[in-house]
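User: Modeling request: complex.
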Amino acid sequence: MFLFIVFALIAIVAAAGVILSRKPVYSALFLLLNFASLAALYIMLQAQFLAAVQIIVYAGAIVVLFLFVVMLIGGGELGAGDRETSRQVDKEAGRQGNKADAASPRVRVQLGWPRVTALVLAVLLLAGLGYGLVTGQLYAGQGTAAAFGQGSVEAIGAALYTDYLLPFEMTSVLLLVGMVGAVVLARREA
Amino acid sequence: MVPTSYYLILSAVLFTLGVLGVLIRRNVLIIFMSVEMMLNAVNLTFAALSLHFLGLNGQIFVLMAMVVAAAEVAVGLAIVMAVVRNRDTTNIEDVNLLKG
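Assistant: Request completed. Predicted assembly structure:
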């Protein structure tokens, strides 16, 4: 119960951080915290395969994609009520930033609320994970569900390749179509 | 044991935060991230109910939803990049050609 409260709190505060951050990079990293705490909650729900897939697919691919796009198109720093175009704000800030850098070459790390919150949440997440692993509470294998092997790779594999074979094959087609679509969209006009 | 309703309430809170993010933010990337958060909240609901009814259907659906989300993010981010490069803005209110 205590572990659930810890991970739920991290998920909620990280979600609030996603929608309240001024910089998209901070939002992406808060999203990463949210996904990690959800993976821990999946383990508590006897869904250990889902937890692994959550980390691999969501935290390891989708958030990375978001960070790539933020890097390529340069996020912009819009709050919830700003009016200007974010890229123009970026360009002006870049011009002023270059002048400031020429004057004072040292980089000042500002300790704003996103960094403090993220630090607290990350420490809490690590502490929760460590405590859960050490005391054996964060272990998918207890209770009635474990008696049926629910959530294990064998159980999901058995269900996926017998009862849900058609959806499984269709997801592969879906991924192929998505990949072709993304490549077509990113192509330069010849 | 944590009651299933606690997971459902947490999922509802996360979904609401995702909807808030879509409604109040103007940066198209953050709107996209809020949509992903909504998908995750629904995944949590499915996993919680899968444990509640001791059936694997919920978890299989979560897998399908994750696949769909991954494909959607890939194509959606390609579209976002194309639009942002063309209009030179990440403010979603500037993409208003269809506005009446």
